[in-house]
Amino acid sequence: MNIYPKRWQALGYLTAGAFLSPLDYFIVNMALPSMKKAFNASDYQLQLVVAIYGLTYAALVVCGGRLGDLYGRKKIFILGLYIFLLSSLACAFSPDITFLIIARLFQGVGASFLAPQVLASIRVLFSSHEQPKAVSLFSSVFGLASVAGQLLGGFLLHLHWTTFSWEMVFLVNVPVTILCIIGIHFTMDNNYEEKRQNIDFIGAFLLIISLLMLICPIIFGRKYHWAWWIFAILLSGLLLLLVFYRYEAKSLRKNKPVLIDPSLLQHRPFVLCLLIIFFYNFTSGLFICYPYYLQQFLHQDPIETGLAIIPYGIAFFLGPLLVPRINLSSDTMIYIGLSLLITGFSLTSLFINFQEKPSFGTDISLFLAGLGHGIIMPVMMRKAIALISKEKAGQASGLISISIQIGSVTGGTIIGTVFFSAIEYWGFPKAFALAVFMIGAVQIVGVFINKTLLKHSKD
């Protein structure tokens, strides 16, 4: 008998809270034109509204996982909800664009405390035969967020019964966070490591700075025409990551507290899982290029744009729910997910290249891609977290979240740069077709990594 009788109710509130993190990414993108008008903001400032959230989230998410290990996942999850609630209110009532950017930074802090607690709690609260279903339910929220963010954003921006416009995309977070705070309080125990340690503040500082040095140049490189110092910062970030790793290893040898146990990064199957997760999250490029293509080239409004992404989002939502019902090995499911991503994006590229306007064929191809995304996400999360002991579940889930976020930022930036650059030479349709094709082509790397992972599983 499981010692956590309310684990399924707790999972509902955990996933609802974690749902806010990806939702805020998708929904805010829809509101940028309204923010530009309201604050007379520059494109650079609007870029910061989006980027600062992702930057803070990626840089702090492993710290959020470690805090959950040390002080209890329930406490840190609730703390994250409170930060997210207050920062959402601050965003909605921002007097100027600078205040909004700062408030978005704190939203990223709150989000970084949420997601790691879910995966780590699943590892602790659920038995091994229940974990696949629990992880699948958690993974489905990402697909739901991709649909809800586009549709809800478009709907809220068209409401005329209040004096608010873009503010509504932040105010919608308020009832959800309050509900989750109350629900988690009554359904979840405060599980944490039995052995308490101090926080590795120096390690946290080194990791945060190195990740910022890696992510910022990728985001802003195009703005500064990929000047030499952009690459210098990237190289410095890589070197600082090495310094962080050596510092953690040295601290562990001296029995000092560490942020990430170096043995996790020496666990090759786990690292290979992180690489596959990194590359399949290049799919974020679709959500940057597709809305822009629809609105700027085809002149569709936000609601029409939101509806266009539904085939991908529905499949992304259904995929994780189908995984527990399919009696195949995780290795086979990874190949199926990657194959669907490659096929779906390749066909989408072909249809757009010849038809320009989305068609029924485009909907089917996007559905296939979304299904692939929905299948591979829970399989990879479950496979990666199962490789690590329960005592290190928070650190492992933090690293998984970092792989997701950095993959999304890197993929979105690279795919977006190719798309915007190609528009000048080939026009919108061919530029979008190329960008989408690249998303599918990148997944071939994941196929080869999975072959290596399979060899290690047999050893």
From TrEMBL:
Alphabetized InterPro entries for the sequence: MFS, MFS_dom, MFS_trans_sf
Localisation: Membrane
Gene3D superfamilies per UniProt: MFS general substrate transporter like domains, Multidrug resistance protein D
Record-linked Pfam families: MFS_1
Name of this protein: Drug resistance transporter, EmrB/QacA subfamily
Residues annotated as transmembrane: 12-32, 44-64, 76-95, 101-122, 134-156, 168-187, 199-220, 226-248, 269-293, 305-323, 335-352, 364-381, 402-425, 431-449
Any one of the GO CC terms: membrane
Molecular function GO labels: transmembrane transporter activity
PROSITE patterns: MFS
Record keyword Hydrolase present: no
Record-linked PANTHER family: ACTINORHODIN TRANSPORTER-RELATED, MAJOR FACILITATOR SUPERFAMILY MULTIDRUG TRANSPORTER MFSC
Membrane topology value: Multi-pass membrane protein
